[in-house]
Design goal:
Chain lengths: 509, 360
């Protein structure tokens, strides 16, 4: 049966500075379907949906509702047209009740009496019941379970008259039971004639709930196809794509002594649950070990434990032959550990301080940089000038606050600092996230140089191309465990895609 | 053809530069203009009031001395809160810390009478510093260990200190020969800070305050300690990644911050009033917040703004003869703060022309 698309996005391009998040994307959704948007982190799913809900405006391209071009200039405008979005981080006021949250932003006269609120409460209660979405109406939402909060969000969008409900990574915060409940809800909404759009990177869930699936990869639309005509395996392959260029030429290098060895590591996440368990890792001198995997499978905690920012429950970490008991950040820095953190402006650089101050982060305690408690201002300026020149950081001056540099130059500055500290091991987390092609190349060359100099690199990245291109060995993290490990020569992206998706590799041919 | 015309819109630029230095001057000027209207509304001639004020504060040897005298506590308290603001701890408790210092210094004169000057003055100095510092720590400890908001604790501790002061001057420390006046006995000569020259009101505290500003400038910009402070203030998360112990620094900085205000309190009782009274501070600790903000924590700026605000207080008293209440001074202070805070956004706001996206 042919149905006219209720919603079309044509040739959508969205750029952030030099980075293209959506590259001429075509997307359409039929009325009354559950449509899943599948892709790795950074594939551009959320960006695309944010343009639909009026949070971002497309750089070019057009959006049509029922065949009519529309301009969605704000979330309010999108809501008026019947588009509602449930964000990954809920937009709820924690101290207000569910009813109050739903009524928040409701237009009307300045003053509503208590009877109005009472009537609305009854109306919302009945509305939620009809949809089969139950949650306590009068409890502050901060006391509700995450699944209940999500239901409040869904009812909020529907109560405001949404025909299209967009859910951004709706299952990432839910327990398995809550996921089942959510899927039932979505099916019921579908029967009500709503169009449901969900973004996710979880294959099993897509196959379980979606009618049609669109796959995005690196900002481009790969394909759209009915769920009945595909398989998890095929989707995994489409998600990771084909190798675009052969891996870089590399001088074979015999790995040296073991620099870092981790055995049977168990780490807990912020909210108690185990984020790594039974984790093993070995990094030798002169090799780059890549850790691939979909985000949220323990990468963040792994990086934090290894840099001394997070304690661990169980297991042994041996760095340069010395077992770490309770590592402090400072002792690890002094022992030769460098760190390129996940979010450079959040934890790697101080935006309002100048280039020199940001270069001094790790080395200001050294006698070359300070003496008797006083910084060697003149020497530090000369030293900074050398570093900036050597690593080709483009900055107006050494006194420029680093927040005024481009993302690529910020990252080069950060790498300059970490590399000049002469590390034995560098832990690089998403080192090229948000960088343009030139800056990405520069960062990769710097990591390559470290390897040639006999240093070790642990590269944690969600960009599979990057991991495949750079690593001597590749590890895939899934659910806090190493799902598989493979040397560079035998790396097969389809197999890695399976591991990333949590599929048993036995199933693969 | 586009249905949508291009339009202008204000944007806050996250990578914005700091507002240029002249915005401070512009905001002071704007505050004076706004205040002129208020003076006009209260039935006086603004021109005459400004002239009178300026003459009162800077126009005579006596006025200038008074202004310099009031610069001392403003400068010390301003310095104290500036250090706290450098590490992004919003200490608004300089008033209470000043009072704690004044009380402690007076305590020395009451419980250790008849000490020679060489012993009494250093002892009072240490007592003032320590008491102010401890008062600062009372804000820092809950913040560091229980994440209690420092704005609330430091403000509340101001009232605690003031009520404590009232208790003492109305109760146990009241001068028996003071005709029921709420104040401690007058300090003996050995316990007063010597004047800069002759019988001048101006005492050596001014020199000490200026020296401390210099120490602050050097410590913040040229030492390892100052570097760590600046890093924590700019991005605590990054400081954590650099292996800096944030808690310890917050405790240390707030001790110093409080100690400087406590020193101001000691100097007021020992150098100016020569006794503890419940009116020992006309709100120096609060004005100091504006002083620090206007100076943007810059050492030279601190000296200038402390001097300006001292002049405002002294000049404010001089306009009473025109039938204007001296509280005109606090009104102008408020207006200046209002515009200065507003102007800090100037560098961040951009007027941008929005062109509609080109349809495919």
């Amino acid at each position: 049966m042919e149905r006219l698309p209720a919603l079309q996005m044509r040739q959508i391009v969205k750029t952030f500075g030099a980075v293209t998040a959506n590259d001429h994307v075509d997307f359409e959704a039929l009325p009354g379907e559950i449509h899943a948007l599948l892709g790795e982190n950074g594939a551009g799913k959320s960006t695309l949906m944010c343009q639909l809900s009026g949070v971002y405006r497309p750089s070019s391209g057009e959006i049509l509702l029922d065949g009519q071009p529309v301009r969605l200039t704000s979330p309010l405008e999108a809501a008026k047209r019947g588009i509602g979005m449930v964000f990954q981080n809920f937009r709820l006021v924690p101290t207000l009740t569910a009813v109050e949250n739903i009524l928040l932003g409701e237009k009307g006269p300045f003053w509503h009496g208590p009877s109005w609120k009472k009537a609305c409460r009854l109306e919302i209660g009945a509305f939620a019941q009809r949809l089969g979405l139950s949650f306590p109406l009068d409890t502050p939402v901060e006391l509700l379970a995450v699944g209940e909060q999500q239901r409040v969000e869904i009812v909020k969008t529907l109560y405001r008259g949404a025909r299209f409900v967009i859910l951004d990574e709706p299952t990432s915060v839910l327990t398995p039971n809550e996921v089942d409940d959510l899927f039932q809800t979505l099916r019921r909404l579908k029967q009500e004639g709503k169009t449901i759009l969900i973004t996710t990177h979880k294959l099993k869930e897509v196959m379980a709930v979606a009618d049609r699936i669109s796959v995005l990869r690196k900002g481009r639309m790969v394909t759209t196809l009915p769920a009945s005509q595909t398989s998890e395996k095929e989707l995994a392959q489409m998600m990771v794509g084909e190798q675009l260029s052969p891996p870089r030429e590399r001088v074979a290098q015999l790995p040296g002594e073991v620099i870092l060895s981790v055995t049977d590591l168990e780490v807990h996440a912020d909210h108690g649950g185990r984020s790594l368990s039974g984790f093993h890792l070995e990094v030798r001198a002169g090799e780059i070990v890549g850790v691939a995997g979909v985000s949220g499978n323990g990468q963040k905690e792994l990086a934090e434990v290894l840099t001394g920012l997070r304690p661990w429950k169980k297991g042994h970490i041996v760095f340069q032959g010395r077992e770490l008991r309770s590592a402090t950040v400072r002792s690890l820095i002094e022992a030769g550990l460098a760190h390129v953190p996940e979010n450079r402006m959040k934890s790697g650089l101080a935006g309002s301080l100048n280039v020199i101050d940001n270069l001094l982060f790790k080395s200001y305690r050294l006698p070359e940089r300070s003496r008797w408690g006083f910084l060697r201002l003149k020497d530090n300026r000369i030293w900074s000038r050398e570093l900036v020149d050597e690593f080709a950081v483009r900055t107006p001056s050494l006194d420029t606050p680093v927040q005024q540099l481009s993302g690529g130059n910020q990252q080069k500055l950060l790498l300059a600092r970490e590399i000049r500290h002469n590390p034995r091991l560098m832990i690089a987390v998403h080192p090229t996230q948000g960088l343009d092609v030139g800056a990405t190349q520069a960062v990769h060359d710097l990591l390559e140089d470290l390897r040639s100099a006999g240093k070790s690199v642990l590269l944690i990245s969600e960009d599979l191309d990057e991991v495949l291109d750079m690593s001597d060995r590749i590890l895939v993290l899934f659910n806090g465990k190493v799902a598989g490990e493979v040397p560079r020569a035998q790396a097969d992206r389809h197999l890695i895609g399976m591991w990333m998706a949590g599929l048993d590799h036995q199933e693969t041919p | 053809m586009s249905l949508f015309r291009s339009s202008f819109r204000f944007e806050i630029d996250p990578s914005g530069k700091a507002a240029p230095w002249w915005t401070t001057l512009v905001s002071v000027a704007l505050a004076l203009i706004v205040s002129s209207f208020l003076i006009l509304a209260s039935g006086a001639d603004p021109g005459a009031v400004w002239v009178k004020m300026f003459q009162g504060a800077f126009g005579s040897w006596f006025g200038l001395t008074e202004t310099l005298l009031k610069t001392i506590p403003l400068l010390l308290c301003g310095l104290g809160v500036s250090i706290a603001y450098k590490i992004a701890v919003w200490n608004i408790g300089a008033e209470g810390q000043l009072l704690a210092g004044a009380i402690a210094a007076t305590g020395v004169t009451i419980y250790f009478p008849n000490l020679p000057a060489e012993v009494a003055l250093p002892l009072m100095l240490v007592a003032g510093l320590a008491a102010g510092g401890v008062w600062g720590l009372l804000t820092a400890l809950p913040k560091v260990f229980f994440q209690v908001n420092e704005l609330i604790t430091s403000l509340m501790l101001n009232y605690v200190a003031f009520l404590g002061l009232q208790f003492l001057v109305f109760g146990p420390w009241r001068d028996p020969k003071g005709l029921n006046f709420p104040g401690s006995p007058v300090f003996p000569h050995a316990e007063t800070i010597p004047p800069l020259w002759g019988h001048s009101q101006l005492h050596w505290g001014l020199i000490l305050a200026l020296v401390l500003v210099g120490v602050y400038a050097v410590a913040v910009n040229m030492t390892r300690w100052g570097y760590e402070i600046r890093l924590i203030g700019a991005n605590p998360e990054a400081a954590l990644h650099a292996g800096i112990r944030i808690r310890r620094h917050i405790l240390g900085v707030l001790f110093i911050s409080g100690a400087l205000a406590g020193l101001a309190g000691m100097m007021e009782v020992s150098g100016v009033t020569h006794r503890l009274m419940d009116s020992v501070s006309p709100g120096y600790g609060y004005t100091a917040i504006i002083v620090a903000w206007i100076a943007r924590l810059n050492p030279l700026g601190l000296i200038l703004s402390a001097f300006l605000f001292a002049g405002l207080i002294v000049g404010g008293f001089n306009v009473q003869t025109l039938g204007i209440p001296p509280s005109i001074a606090s009104m102008i202070q408020g207006a200046i703060l209002f515009f200065v805070i507003g102007s800090s956004l100037v560098g961040k706001i951009k007027l941008r022309r929005t062109t509609p996206g080109t349809g495919a």
